[in-house]
Every structure is written in C-alpha cells, then in structure tokens.
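ok posting inputs for the adenosine monophosphate job
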Amino acid sequence: MSNTVKAILDLKGRNVVTAGANTTAGEAAKVLSSRKIGAVVIVGMEGRIAGIFTERDLVNAVAKFGKDCLDQPVVSLMTSRVFRCHEDTTVNELMELMTSRRFRHLPVETNGKLVGIVSIGDVVKTRIAEVERETEEIKAYIAG
Ligand code: AMP
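and the output
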C-alpha cells in the first residue's frame, strides 16, 4: 500500500515557512535562500492560505519586470489558486497531482488550517524507500 502525507509529515515535521501578502519579492527571495527551500506559503487572515510563491515565480517575475520586481509585494506575483492536499492523500496521488499540474509543492490542510507542506523532494525520498522495502520483501519471499 502507498504511503500517505501523514507518514511524510511524521518524519519531516509540520513546520511551514509562511509570509504575509505585503512581503516584497526581494524579502521572499531572502527567506527562500536562507531557509534553503523552494516555496513560501502566503497567508492572510487567521493564517488561511492566500497564495504560494516559489522560486519559479521569482524567475518569471525577474524575466518579466527586471530587478524592479524585487520591490513588488508577493501578492502581485504569487499563484492565488493553490492546490492543497490532506494527511490521508497518498504518495501516488501526490505524484499524479505534481506531474499533471507541473508544480513541486503542496501545502497540507486539515479543516481549512495549514498543517504542513510536501515537496517533490519528500515524494521522491518516500518513493525510493517504498521501492527498497518492496525489493527486500520480494527477495525474502523468493528466498523463502
Ligand atoms: P514549483 O514547481 O512548485 O516551483 O511551482 C511552479 C509554479 O506553480 C509556480 O508558479 C507556483 O506558484 C505554482 N505552484 C506551486 N505549488 C502550487 C500549488 N500547490 N498550487 C498551485 N500552484 C502552485
């Protein structure tokens, strides 16, 4: 059976790096760089998800507006229609969503509250562990 988001969060933790909508792109870039992450979740009232700003959005903004974009608030550069997943979402479902929608980050929500984030790196790590476990099980079965 495929692992779930819950299993990933139990291992990596539930901390999510967030920022407010008025954060500038330059400030967000510093957060992405210092925290060594690819995405920051933009939150509004009561910590609700308002958008997501990733390194891809930064590259697109620089290409479109030049360095002046660094002073723009992320609200004008982020993606507002954010796809989310839940703790019971499976790793197979994550792979399907990330591949078909072409993004590498999925915030995790429980009852409308942000409770974690999974990245494509987490998915690959979990999938490798699954494949290794399946291989060991098959070897043990053959041996007997
Ligand atoms: P990424 O591959 O995660 O760097 O993101 C590629 C593009 O998809 C960027 O424009 C992001 O803002 C957007 N994006 C990333 N994650 C999500 C998500 N969960 N829902 C909607 N858009 C997203």
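notes: The chain has five helices and five strands. The pocket of adenosine monophosphate is lined by residues 38-39, 52, 54-57, 79, 82-83, 103-106 (CB under 6 Å).
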